[in-house]
Amino acid sequence: MKEYKLLSWPDLPAEFRRTGFRRLLSDLSQRHLSEAALxxxxxxxxxxxxxxxxxxxxxxxxxxxxxEPSASKWRPDLAGWLRRLTA
Length: 87
Known about the structure:
Largest sheet: 3 strands, antiparallel
Radius of gyration: 17 Å
Shape: elongated
CATH topology: Arc Repressor Mutant, subunit A
Distance between the termini: 38 Å
Strand order of the largest sheet: 2-1-3
Order of helices and strands: EHEHHEH
Structural class: alpha+beta
Strand content: 5-15%
Number of helices: 4
Number of domains: 1
Oligomer: single chain
Helix content: 40-55%
């Protein structure tokens, strides 16, 4: 899975000058985020998020990296919950 971070603020065309897009850009300027994380944001449709990423990539203002595999914290909790449930 890829993660994205904004390298510099581009001059946005009219289609991306809404509050939802500015929030996405603000988040992207602070840290690397996956496309899935961006899609969960309110105020912007999935197709619009993808269009924004494509626009930013075309302007070469995105740092793209492969996400590191994360150790899921809920699985041990789920296993413990199942053991208590069946006990």
